[in-house]
């Protein structure tokens, strides 16, 4: 079974993931981590993946993110980034330890994504708690990092380095820039490792039992005007400034929504791939009545988000 949370860094969304997980756990009547063996996440989904992989249960994870939200989103004396990165870095070090490595996550195979942004296009970086059964000398040859050399807090910091909200981390930024829905990424990793180990004449008969994937909610569609910027000459900018500004803003909004979207095409692709393998695929991503600020820590916004999640869950449980 695999669990794949997606997400931008948003306090309400982290709690939303945990609420959905709690509902699934209640249906199973046993700890979810006893059934889930592979966990992948991006941004705050990556944070949740590491929490569960590190041994925290669902209630402990919820308590942590609620009690420490102001430490992570501590604001900044500058306009951008909106938050001082020292806040979230101190939180991650306290939660996971300064020297704990990804290799110490034993019960589940955990994967979190990041994006290398010092070149264009950005490159996908995967922090794994696992590796194929090859020698450490072969890791680089096949594109793997040694889990024993990856500090957990640094992996969590890299995947949560959302532009505007936090500084990049050693040339790495939020995995959502490249991979906002990690389901396809982990499915690819699963079969790639299987193929590699079989090539090495190692027995690997692992199969995917089912896939659980959790989105960050589907916001209402935002109607945009045109995005075409037509200028006959630089001098026309002053005359038509408001029109150019509005269309430029629409273009930025379009790219922002595309960058932070985790549904639509990627979900359909993962679902069809899973079904072609005979693997059950479960997607949870409630429709939201409005958009929420990504870095909001207000209790009102968090509980509004919770209420919509709980209402949808109860509606479909009837």
Automatic annotation (TrEMBL):
Record keywords: Repeat included?
A: yes
> By its UniProt entry, which InterPro entries does this protein fall under?
Acyl_Trfase/lysoPLipase, PLPL9, PNPLA_dom
Which Pfam family, an example, fits this chain?
A: Patatin
GO CC annotation terms, alphabetical:
mitochondrion
Supply one GO BP term.
lipid catabolic process
Query: Per the record's keyword annotation, is Repeat included, yes or no?
Result: yes
Q: Locate the PNPLA domain: which residues?
A: 8-187
Q: Which GO terms describe its molecular function?
A: calcium-independent phospholipase A2 activity; long-chain fatty acyl-CoA hydrolase activity
UniProt short sequence motif GXSXG, positions renumbered to this chain: 41-45
* Record keywords: ANK repeat, Hydrolase, Lipid degradation, Lipid metabolism, Repeat
Q: Where does the motif DGA/G lie?
A: 174-176
Q: What is this protein called?
A: Phospholipase, patatin family
């Amino acid at each position: 079974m695999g669990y794949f949370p997606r997400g931008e860094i948003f306090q309400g969304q982290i709690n939303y993931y945990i609420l959905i997980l709690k509902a699934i756990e209640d249906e199973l009547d046993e700890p979810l981590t006893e059934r889930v063996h592979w966990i992948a996440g991006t941004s705050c989904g990556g944070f949740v993946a590491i929490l569960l992989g590190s041994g925290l249960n669902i209630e402990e994870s919820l308590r942590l993110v609620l009690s420490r939200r102001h430490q992570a989103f501590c604001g900044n004396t500058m306009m951008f980034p909106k938050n001082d990165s020292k806040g979230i870095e101190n939180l991650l070090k306290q939660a996971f330890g300064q020297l704990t490595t990804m290799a110490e996550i034993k019960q589940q195979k955990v994967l979190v994504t990041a994006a290398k942004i010092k070149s264009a296009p950005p490159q996908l970086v995967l922090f794994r708690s696992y590796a194929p059964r090859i020698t450490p000398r072969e890791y680089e040859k096949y594109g793997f990092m040694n889990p024993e050399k990856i500090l957990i807090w640094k992996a969590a910091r890299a995947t949560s380095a959302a532009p505007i909200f936090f500084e990049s981390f050693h040339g790495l930024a939020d995995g959502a820039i490249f991979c906002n829905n990690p389901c396809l990424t982990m499915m690819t990793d699963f079969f790639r490792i299987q193929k590699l180990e079989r090539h090495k004449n190692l027995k690997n008969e692992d199969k995917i039992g089912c896939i659980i994937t959790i989105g960050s909610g589907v916001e209402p569609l935002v109607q945009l005007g045109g995005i075409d910027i037509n200028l006959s000459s630089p001098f026309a900018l002053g005359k038509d400034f408001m029109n150019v500004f509005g269309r430029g803003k629409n273009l930025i909004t379009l790219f922002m929504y595309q960058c932070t979207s985790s549904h639509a095409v990627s979900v359909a692709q993962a679902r069809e791939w899973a079904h072609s393998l005979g693997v059950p695929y479960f997607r949870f991503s409630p429709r939201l009545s409005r958009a929420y600020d990504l870095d909001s820590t207000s209790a009102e916004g968090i509980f509004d988000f919770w209420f919509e999640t709980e209402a949808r869950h109860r509606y479909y449980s009837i």
